Amino acid sequence: MEKEIKGYPYIQFEHQHLSEQEMLSQSNTYYRQLDKRRSVREYSDKAVPREVIENIVKTASSAPSGAHKQPWTFCVVSNKATKKEIRAAAEKEEQESYSGRMSERWLKDLQPLGTDWRKPFLETAPYLIIVFKKVYEEEDGEKSNNYYVNESVGIACGFLISAIHQAGLVTLTHTPSPMNFLTEILGRPKNERPFLLLPVGYPAEETFVPKIERKSLDEVAVFYE
Ligand code: IYR
Predict the structure, then answer these.
(1) What is the pLDDT of residues 92-113, one digit of tens each?
(2) Is 193 exposed, middle or buried (CB count within 10 Å of its CB: 0-12, 13-18, 19+)?
(3) Ligand 1 lined by 175 (C-beta under 6 Å)
């Protein structure tokens, strides 16, 4: 059903009605499923069908955004030479970060996670998704700023990570700093800034991840009843 409201086209919202029992069951299943997600740093080079990646990106791009501007570009890199170039540039920055730019406290906080400047996953993973935020749009030389860009792109990345997990793949939110080399290597326009880099693929065989605990509901939520 379609109609006009105040001169704009509307369609009827299709709500998926669930019984309370179904809600309980589905919310719990979704929680248990997402709670299994872990950031993975060791990847297999096993190929992933491109259509799976396309579905994942479409899911991310279905996220809400300020004034529905969808201020993002997902650069999907599987080209070996480009991955190699990205790895070299990222490791160069990371080397400087780990040997001086990051504080002692920061380095100590990262120790249990076992990270260092080496990023072999940038070449091993079959795909790298580099998310760019579009700070403004340019039409006929006219610049117009987008709204709530960080919030919008952050939410889209949440959808992306959840879709990757749901597809049976693994990822990692990698944030080399500074990230401008990605703008250059990928030839992105001026209005786009790199936001997050995510390797996507299968975990390497026998992957170990840090034994961490998640905060309890009491620690993260306050109910005002
Ligand atoms: N960007 C670096 C450092 C790093 C920072 C945080 I905060 C992490 O949770 C993990 C790593 C890197 O990618 O190694």
Answers:
(1) 999 999 999 999 999 999 999 9
(2) middle
(3) yes
Contact 12, 1 (CB under 8 A): yes
- Cβ(83)–Cβ(130) under 8 Å? no
- pLDDT, one tens digit per residue, over 66-92 is 999 999 999 999 999 999 999 999 999
174 lines ligand 1 (CB under 6 A): yes
Can you give the three-state secondary structure of the chain, one letter per residue?
A: CEEEECCEEEECCCCCCCCHHHHHHHHHHHHHHHCCCCECCCECCCCCCHHHHHHHHHHHCCCCCHHHCCCEEEEEECCHHHHHHHHHHHHHHHHHHHHHHCCHHHHHHHHHHCCCCCCCHHHHCCEEEEEEEECEEEECCEEEECCCHHHHHHHHHHHHHHHHHHCCCEECCECCCCCCHHHHHCCCCCCEEEEEEEEEECECCCCCCCCCCCCCHHHHCCCCC
User: What is the 6 CA–ligand 1 centroid distance (Å)?
Assistant: 49
Say yes or no: CB of residue 67 within 6 Å of ligand 1. Answer: no
CB 56 within 8 A of CB 161: no
Residue with tokens 């160069």: 92
Distance CA 136, CA 149 (A): 9
- Say what the pTM is: 0.96
Whole-complex ipTM: 0.91
